[in-house]
Amino acid sequence: MNTPLRKVALALMAMVVLLLGNATYIQVFAADDYRADPRNRRVLLNEYSRERGQLIADGLPLASSVPTGGELQFHRRYLAGPQNAPMTGYYSLRYGSGGIENAMDPVLNGSDGRLFVRRLSDLITGRDPRGGHVELSADPAVQQVAFEELASRDYSGAAVALRPDTGEVLAMASTPSYDPNRLASFDAETQSQAWGDFTSDENDLPLTNRATSSSYPPGSTFKLVTTAAALESGTATPDTQLTAAPTITLEDTATELANFGNNRCGSGETAPLTEALASSCNTAFAQLAAMTGEEALRAQAERLGIGQQDQRIPVRVAPSTVGEIPDTAALQVSGIGQRDVALTPLQNAVIAATIANDGARMTPEMVDTILAPDFSVIDEFEPNQAAEAMSPQTAEAVTDMMIASEENTSGGGKISGVTIASKTGTAERGNADLAPHVWYVAFAPAEDPRVAVAVVVEDGGDEGLDATGGSVASPIGRAVIAAALQGDQ
């Protein structure tokens, strides 16, 4: 072979190698990137050519796909969009998906391995491919009450309701909320405007699910954890006498810690733990936290799920934390739910549900059943006990204290004939000019618990600096409890 032909042959071979290398890179290494690229219209058309599965709660389709007759063949629709958004999430042509729509996407789009036989059957019979359906554990009536109680008052906050013995999520409301129908629009301008509105600080970030993604200082609701730690470690009993002083000085500091309103904790020099919890005495619990110790407090918090990383229900849950505790003074403040302690509303609901369930902490879950396109069952939720967080005896003792706490709690919505076990919290934010976040955690009926709730209202709701958990959050929690008990009859 002469020199010119040899050069041409080598050049051709090099080009073939480059072409093979480029094809290999595209098909093997970059395939996922090209498939996920929003400019890839083939993927987009394929995704919208099949009927996406429904999100269902108690027989109601909270999210469904309807035929359009156009190039994008199916359009996502949401029932009572803002009310149910924390339960459904969103599915958008331009902005992808969030919430359950994202977490359960393989089932909803039909690619989940459990739907393989159905996909194969569709291919053989020539049926149009369809996604599977997801049945949620939510009770739509409870969800409606939880949302309306917050939204009607124009509060920023969240409410969560759980079934104590299974961990099933009965309601998960977050306000301000958003309408996923706007993000599901096929109009680019409508989607863009909605995304801007839903991610704006000026609108208080409505896209954020405050029930699972936001954490707050729990204030006095954390005294339930401190109490359980003291009882479980043998540091105290319900009758243990604690200081009744209206103020105390934190150990090795000159900093004063006061009870709410600078009130004494009872009439004597000391008060039993039962009375200290019922009256939510900061001074008594600062003393109790120091007596109990950091190790026991942290261990109890961990058994209740605080600090758990990468939790999914199946949506991702932000971790809660006890925070750093460098010294005894920090331990005293942490023991009353201040300083660096931060809990999500879901976590606080789990604490209440665990006490209600004789100390057994159940894994919270939003999904009840996975259904095939023809609505036959292919997978069902099974309750899972995550930990034995405390003994039944401790849970019973804390329940009795919470019943006494509810009797001392103000606010409307008391339910005749129903014994509620509860604890309120008024969480200071490190600045006297900032209104507190206020809490109410509870379960009922106390003698046979069927629902546990946690409610948080940011910035004192409509009462500002004068807000308390009893005046602002408890009426919402009681309304959610009433709705759950009515639906459970």
List the helices and strands and how they pair.
Blueprint: H1 3-29, H2 31-36, H3 41-47, E1 55-57, E2 60-67, E3 74-78, H4 81-88, E4 90-92, E5 96-98, H5 100-103, H6 105-109, H7 116-125, E6 133-136, H8 140-151, E7 157-162, E8 169-175, H9 180-183, H10 188-198, H11 210-213, H12 223-233, E9 241-243, E10 247-249, E11 256-258, E12 270-272, H13 273-278, H14 282-292, H15 294-303, E13 311-312, E14 316-317, H16 328-334, H17 345-356, E15 360-362, E16 367-371, E17 377-380, E18 385-388, H18 392-407, E19 421-427, E20 437-444, E21 451-457, H19 469-487
Parallel strand pairs: 1-6
Antiparallel strand pairs: 1-2, 2-3, 4-5, 6-16, 7-8, 7-21, 9-12, 10-11, 13-14, 15-18, 16-17, 19-20, 20-21
Helix pairs in contact: 8-19, 12-14, 12-15, 14-16
CATH superfamily of the domain at 216-370 and 383-487: DD-peptidase/beta-lactamase superfamily
What percentage of the residues does DSSP assign to strands (E)? 15-25%
- The overall pLDDT average reads 92
CATH topology of the domain at 216-370 and 383-487, by name, is Beta-lactamase
Number of helices: 19
Strand arrangement in the largest pleated sheet: 3-2-1-6-16-17
Biggest sheet architecture = 6 strands, mixed
CATH level 1 name of the domain at 216-370 and 383-487: Alpha Beta
CATH architecture of the domain at 216-370 and 383-487: 3-Layer(aba) Sandwich
**End-to-end separation:** 93 Å
Q: What is Rg? A: 27 Å
Structural class: alpha+beta
